[in-house]
Design the sequence.
C-alpha cells in the first residue's frame, strides 16, 4: 500500500560529497518539478524526488556535527560542485563513532582535504590506537543513534562511509536490523551480496539494495556496456583496463592500499560478470579496474581511462582507448535518488532481502549480476509495482497459522 503521507524518511551516514549532491538534487528536482532531464526515472511507484525527506545525518567531522544538513553538506572537506545552493533541510547531523571509518594515513594531509575527527570521538577510532579504543563509548553512542533514528522515524539509511569501513558498516547494518530500517549500501563492504547478511535482512523482513554504488554515467557502467558490446558483436576481449584519478576524499581515503581489496574486487566484478553471465572464460583475458591516483587539484572531478584490446573477424585486432571526465558526486546522486525509491516501493510491496534488479542496476556488486537490459526490466517492473519471477520469490512469507 502506498504511503498516504507521501514522504520517504531517509537518514544519511557520512555527510560527504555524495550526500551533498544527493541533498542538492532532491531539493532541485522538488523546486523545479517540471524538470526531468538528468533523472533516470521521474516516477518510481508513485514517488518523485519531492517525496524524499532527509530526517537526519551522522558524521565524525567536527565541522559538520551539530549543523543542519543545509549547512553541513557545504562544509569542508566537501568539494563537490554546488549546483543548488538553496537548501531548506534543517535535518540535524549527529555524531557517529569512527570505528574503522577513517584511514590513519589521512592525518598527513591538509585539514581542508581530509576528515577532522571531533576530539570526543577519537577514542571511538579503532585504527588510530587500538589500545585506547573505548568500547563503552561506542556502545553508548549506539544507543544514541538508535534513539535518533527512532525519534526521526527513519525508514531508509544511506551508507556513504569511506571505502574500507567494514566494521562501521556492520555496526550500522546491525542497527538497521534492530529497527527495521532498509539499507542502501553505497560502498564496497559486502552486505547485500553476502548470503549470511542477506539472510539476516530476510529474517527481519527488510528489503535492501547494495553493494557499492555504480554511478549514473561513470566508469563502471561504461566498462559494462563496452564489454557487453564487444561480446554482442562477436569479439574476444583480450584485455580490459580501467584506471581512475580524482581529488575528493574518496580518492584520498583510497591512497591507503590496505582499504582497497574490496573496492578492486567490486570494480572488476562489473567487467568479469559479463563473461560469467555468458559462460565465457577469463583465463586468457587481462582485467584490471581500480583507483590509481589521488590528485587534490582535481577536486570532485573524476577522470577515467579505458583501454580495450579485442580480437575481431579472423582475429583482426581492435583497440579502443577512451577517456571519461565526470563530476563524481552528482553522478552518484543520480543513481541513489532512484535506489531510495526502489527500496521504499519494495517495503510497501512486502519484498524482503536484497533486491536483484535495482541492485544490479545501481550497484557494482549486487547479489546477482545481470545484463543491462535484464536489470532495467526488473527496475521498470518495480517502478510500476508489478511483480516479476525474481520479485515473487522475495515476497514476505506470512505465517497463517493461528
Sequence:
Amino acid at each position: 500500500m502506498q504511503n498516504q503521507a507521501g514522504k520517504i524518511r531517509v537518514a544519511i551516514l557520512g555527510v560527504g560529497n555524495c550526500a551533498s549532491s544527493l541533498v542538492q538534487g532532491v531539493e532541485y528536482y522538488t523546486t523545479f518539478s517540471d524538470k526531468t532531464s538528468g533523472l533516470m526515472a521521474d516516477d518510481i511507484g508513485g514517488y518523485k524526488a519531492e517525496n524524499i525527506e532527509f530526517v537526519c545525518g551522522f558524521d565524525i567531522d567536527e565541522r559538520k556535527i551539530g549543523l543542519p544538513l543545509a549547512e553541513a553538506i557545504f562544509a569542508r572537506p566537501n568539494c563537490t560542485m554546488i549546483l543548488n545552493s538553496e537548501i531548506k533541510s534543517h535535518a540535524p547531523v549527529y555524531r557517529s563513532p569512527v570505528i574503522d571509518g577513517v584511514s590513519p594515513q589521512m592525518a598527513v594531509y591538509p585539514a581542508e582535504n581530509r576528515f577532522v575527527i571531533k576530539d570526543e570521538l577519537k577514542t571511538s577510532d579503532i585504527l588510530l590506537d587500538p589500545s585506547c579504543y573505548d568500547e563503552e563509548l561506542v556502545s553508548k553512542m549506539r544507543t544514541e543513534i538508535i534513539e535518533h533514528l527512532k525519534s526521526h522515524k527513519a525508514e531508509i539509511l544511506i551508507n556513504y562511509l569511506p571505502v574500507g569501513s567494514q566494521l562501521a558498516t556492520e555496526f550500522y547494518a546491525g542497527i538497521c536490523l534492530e529497527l527495521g530500517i532498509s539499507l542502501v549500501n553505497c560502498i564496497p563492504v559486502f552486505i547485500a551480496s553476502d548470503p549470511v547478511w542477506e539472510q539476516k535482512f530476510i529474517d527481519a523482513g527488510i528489503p535492501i539494495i547494495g553493494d557499492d554504488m555504480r554511478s549514473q554515467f561513470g566508469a563502471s557502467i561504461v566498462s559494462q556496456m563496452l564489454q557487453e558490446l564487444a561480446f554482442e558483436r562477436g569479439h574476444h576481449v583480450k584485455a580490459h583496463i580501467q584506471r581512475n584519478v580524482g581529488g575528493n576524499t574518496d580518492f584520498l581515503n583510497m591512497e591507503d592500499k590496505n582499504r582497497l581489496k574490496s573496492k578492486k574486487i567490486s570494480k572488476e566484478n562489473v567487467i568479469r560478470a559479463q563473461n560469467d553471465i555468458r559462460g565465457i572464460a577469463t583465463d586468457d583475458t587481462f582485467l584490471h579496474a581500480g583507483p590509481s591516483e589521488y590528485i587534490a587539484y582535481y577536486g570532485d572531478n573524476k577522470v577515467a581511462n579505458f583501454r580495450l584490446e579485442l580480437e575481431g573477424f579472423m582475429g583482426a585486432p581492435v583497440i579502443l582507448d577512451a577517456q571519461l571526465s565526470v563530476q563524481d558526486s552528482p553522478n552518484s546522486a543520480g543513481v541513489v535518488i532512484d535506489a531510495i525509491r526502489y527500496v521504499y516501493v519494495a517495503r510497501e510491496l512486502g519484498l524482503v532481502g536484497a533486491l536483484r534488479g535495482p541492485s544490479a542496476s545501481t550497484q557494482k556488486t549486487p547479489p546477482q549480476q545481470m545484463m543491462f537490459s535484464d536489470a532495467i526490466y526488473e527496475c521498470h517492473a518495480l517502478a510500476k509495482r508489478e511483480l516479476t519471477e525474481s520479485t515473487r520469490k522475495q515476497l514476505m512469507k506470512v505465517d497463517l497459522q493461528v
